[in-house]
Design a protein that fits this description.
This protein has 157 residues and is mainly alpha-helical. The protein has a domain of 104 residues. The chain contains three helices and no strands. It is elongated, with a radius of gyration of 50 Å.
Length: 157
């Protein structure tokens, strides 16, 4: 569809260019067939280039609208996906809550003891390890000045 409109624009431009050039040429003097053919060819080329440029400008103008439309669609899809996910999570949570309630109810009703093992006491829970206390840093031991053997002999004497 866009190609047909582009071609019609191109043809109308070409005819306009051709008519304006021929009118200027008629003022200057008579034109030969060769000149008219050349002018027609050039007008077609020029019209083709101009139509292409106009089409580019139109598509650029339409691009932001398309981008905004695309973004809206993307956001809508994202919102739908998130809503589905939230519903799925809510369903899962409800299912977990229902199973938890069933477990509590089944634990509340005592099961009949058929064997002596069923009445065995549960093992006591292990005590948590005592937290480690930080030790105070040791003071550096200073060694007393030892006397040399020469001094000890003089003191003993």
């Amino acid at each position: 569809m866009a190609n047909k409109t582009l071609k019609t624009k191109q043809k109308s431009l070409s005819s306009e260019i051709l008519s304006s050039i021929e009118s200027k040429l008629s003022e200057a003097g008579a034109a030969t067939k060769k000149m008219k053919k050349s002018i027609e060819k050039s007008a077609d080329k020029l019209a083709k280039k101009l139509a292409k440029l106009m089409h580019k400008a139109e598509t650029k103008a339409a691009k932001p609208a398309k981008a905004a439309e695309k973004k809206v669609k993307k956001d809508a899809a994202k919102a739908k996906k998130n809503a589905d996910k939230a519903a799925k999570n809510a369903k899962r949570t409800a299912k977990k809550a229902a199973t938890a309630v069933k477990e509590v109810v089944s634990d509340a009703t005592p099961a009949p003891a058929t064997t002596p093992r069923a009445t065995r006491k549960p093992a006591p829970a292990p005590k948590p390890a005592a937290p480690k206390t930080a030790r105070a840093p040791r003071p550096k031991a200073t060694t007393p000045a030892t006397s040399t053997p020469a001094e000890t002999t003089t003191e003993a004497a």
